[in-house]
C-alpha cells in the first residue's frame, strides 16, 4: 500500500518536508514540487535526511529549472516532468499533499 | 485512471493553480480522465471571468475554462468559499440581491458534497494549495 507524498514548501521556510519524512514508509515515494524542490540542492541541509528516508525521492524538473537549480540536484534524487508526476500518482495507492 | 483535483489557492498567489493545470494537461495527454476540479478556499478566485492579466502573462482562468471546454472537465467552485469572496453565478447574484455575476465559462458553483463525491468516484484525489 504505497503512498505518493508531495511537498511544495521550501524546507528552509516551513517544516512540511520534515513532517512528511517523519511519516513515510518504505515503498512510498516523496515528490518535491514548487518551492519544495529547493530541498534537492546538492550540499543542502536536507539531502542526507532525504537519503535516509528509505524511499524513492523525486523532484519536478520544470520547478527546478524555474528556480535555476536544475544543474544542481543531489545524487540519488530522480528528476521527472509532469507526465512522470501523473505516472507516480497513478502507481501509488493514494496521494498525500504536505501543504 | 480517473483523477480528481482540489485547488486551495488563488491564481497568481504561489503556484498551486499552475501546478494543478500542468498536472491535468499531462494526465489528459496520457489518456487519463479528470473527473472534477474542486476549487476551495482562495482557490475559488480562479473562477472569476473578470480577471485581466497582462497580455504576456498566462491567463489561468481562461486556461481552466478552455480545458473544461476541450476535455469536458467539471470545474466546481465551493459555494461557501465563493460567497465570502464575491464569486457569483446568475442564480446566486439574484438570490443575494447583487447587481451582477462573474462566474467564468465552464465553472459552476456547488457544495462541498461535490468534493466528497469526487473523492469517492475518482481513483485518486490530489490536493494542490498553500
From TrEMBL, chain A:
GO molecular-function term, one example from the UniProt record: transferase activity
UniProt source species: Rhodoblastus acidophilus (Rhodopseudomonas acidophila)
GO biological process: tRNA wobble position uridine thiolation
Keyword entries, A-Z: Transferase
Taxonomic superkingdom: Bacteria
Name of the protein: Sulfurtransferase complex subunit TusB
GO cellular component, one term: sulfurtransferase complex
Pfam families xref list: DsrH
Matching SUPFAM superfamilies: DsrEFH-like
Keyword Transferase attached: yes
Automatic annotation (TrEMBL), chain B:
Pfam families found in the cross-reference section: DsrE (PF02635)
Keyword Cytoplasm among UniProt keywords: yes
UniProt xrefs under InterPro entries: DsrEFH-like, Sulphur_relay_DsrE/F-like, Sulphur_relay_TusD/DsrE
Cellular localization per UniProt: Cytoplasm
The keyword Cytoplasm is annotated on this UniProt entry: yes
GO BP term, example: tRNA wobble position uridine thiolation
Superkingdom to which the source organism belongs: Bacteria
Keywords annotated in UniProt: Cytoplasm, Transferase
GO CC, alphabetical: sulfurtransferase complex
Listed GO MF terms: sulfur carrier activity; sulfurtransferase activity
Membership in a protein family: Belongs to the DsrE/TusD family.
Protein name: Sulfurtransferase complex subunit TusD
Organism field: Rhodoblastus acidophilus
